[in-house]
Amino acid sequence: MNVIDAKSPRPVMGLYDQPLWESVNARGMKLQRCAGCGNWLYPPGPSCPSCLSCELVWTPLSGRGRIVSWVVFHRHYLPAYPPPYNAVAVRLEEGPTMISNLEGAMPGEDSIGRAVRLVYATMPDGMILPRWALA
Ligand SMILES: [Zn+2]
Question: Is the whole model's pTM more than 0.70, yes or no?
Fold first, then answer.
């Protein structure tokens, strides 16, 4: 199977994930924000882990963050991800840490702390994924 025909791994949908993926498909990623204390939730859930409020509002992200960790894979694990490919952990400006891929460049020794911005990648099979690019 070549990369063009490879299917992107599908999201594993939890009970609270549907609005997140709808916002990604609309290229305006949202996360839940607590109306009680302002805490941002990721992954999505039923209540705020900080104050236990159930009043959560799907709110657009700023799209800004900083790289806190990264890795480059040199083995071929997934058909849609030929090596080398990377994964980065990004601390969102809003607080949560999100893991995705860095577009446009491989991360390296100077990547920790680098500012990144949220971008939306359209995979060969049409799936839209939230990813990061250097700001
Ligand atoms: Zn709260």
Answer: yes
